[in-house]
Amino acid sequence: MTEAGKKAVVLLSGGLDSATALAVAVRDGFEPCTMSFRYGQRHSHELAAAERVANAMGVKNSIVVTIDLRSIGGSALTDDIDVPKDRTTHSMSGVIPITYVPARNTIFLSYALGWAEVLGSHDIFIGVNAVDYSGYPDCRPEFIEAFERMANLATKEGVEGHSFTIHAPLINMTKAEIIRTGVSLGVDYSLTHSCYDPAPGGLACGRCDSCILRKRGFEDAGIPDPTEYAEPG
Amino acid sequence: MTEAGKKAVVLLSGGLDSATALAVAVRDGFEPCTMSFRYGQRHSHELAAAERVANAMGVKNSIVVTIDLRSIGGSALTDDIDVPKDRTTHSMSGVIPITYVPARNTIFLSYALGWAEVLGSHDIFIGVNAVDYSGYPDCRPEFIEAFERMANLATKEGVEGHSFTIHAPLINMTKAEIIRTGVSLGVDYSLTHSCYDPAPGGLACGRCDSCILRKRGFEDAGIPDPTEYAEPG
């Protein structure tokens, strides 16, 4: 199971899911190289969280790439559009919400692919989840498989027969299962940040889709939620 | 054949191929929206060329996205590595050269996909070419097909049944055929810029792979090369 010394690029947002994906990469014996993005997001507190998480897990190689998603527009996470609040998990399902960032995971994975190729790594970890998620198309298994196939046709490494694997270890887990997995691997979730629309000072709002899914996950896992919310629900 | 008023995102580097792809998009009745990138390339003269080409073709919506490929490193086009000179087209074949930028077309197409989704466009044009090319894996038809498949799984539009098409109209043309096509569509190639390593002032070097392929293309097409070279070959 262990693949000691093999580098993996881990996409790290500073949220609960990506922190867990990082812990899984470490468990599986990879040397994680974490990649985060500054993309004009309103919730830039997540970059500070990404740094805390990477430090806590002893990551030696981490980069933050600045990219400009504002120039293409089109999302409540980068534009001045209100983030929806107080939705039930039922009302989140089946509809792609305004917080969807066009092609975001495609862009993030493309950068990860470029960096993996430079590092000589053939493994990329992404903490997407298709169960307790917000309805984003680029979080589904069929997207991940299609990206992996494309990656192996896109790159020098792929062409030379060194296949890339896109690892999405959380994709079929519930939020509660993700949290239990992370806790068993020593993830300190108090370091992570999930809120789409934090209060001044950085406290989680407790009311956006991401906060609601997070709270529910801790409840379902039967594990105390270490998050401090601006408006406890 | 014409699809009047339908927007298409056209990746425009300012080189010969992308200028021709833009002309083909216009010929096919699309309203072109051009996207160029500032990515730490040494040959930033190409951005000025992209602007000239877009203006000459009456493009109304053009953006330049600044992206940071230097942070992932690994190419003579973004790092301080010498660009190979004076190679024959024979010596270019079969080997992926140092000028290969990891995952570049994947990253560019990912941004184009995001912008297309915001614009409500389902068509993306890219001037890649698999015949007279420098051996890059992400210029091949199988890569373009895999990207298109992935794009339709990645996006809200794709999921809702509005398929994206990645148009690569030059992919099976020789450089001479590309030039003849462009000339027939009124492309002014004196506005374009292909050189990987221009002389101070911006004159094409005449000796890098890109200059050599360009010169050869004009010769084979029997069309005078309007390019002014620093070192005429």
Short structural summary:
In chain A, 36% of the residues lie in helices and 11% in strands. The model of chain A has no long low-confidence stretch (mean pLDDT 85). At the A-B interface, strand 3, helix 4, helix 5 and helix 6 of A face strand 3, helix 4, helix 5 and helix 6 of B.
How would you describe this protein?
2 copies of one chain form a homodimer. The first copy, chain A, is of the alpha/beta class and 233 residues long. The first copy, chain A, has one domain (7-221): Rossmann fold (3-Layer(aba) Sandwich), CATH 3.40.50. Helix content of chain A is 36%, strand content 11%. The first copy, chain A, contains 8 helices and 5 strands; from the N terminus they run βαβαβααβααβαα. Chain A has a 5-stranded parallel beta sheet, sandwiched between helices. Chain A is globular and about 55 Å long. The mean pLDDT of chain A is 85. The interface between A and B is large, with 42 and 42 residues.
- Average pLDDT of chain A, rounded to a whole number, is 85
What string, H for helix and E for strand, traces the elements of chain A in order? EHEHEHHEHHEHH
Which assembly state applies to the chains in this document? homodimer
- What Rg of chain A, in angstroms, do the CA atoms define? 17 Å
Question: Strand share of the residues of chain A?
Answer: 5-15%
In whole angstroms, how far apart are the ends of chain A? 41 Å
Helix content of chain A: 25-40%
The CATH topology of chain A is given as Rossmann fold
For the biggest sheet of chain A, the summary is: 5 strands, parallel
Q: CATH class of chain A, please?
A: Alpha Beta
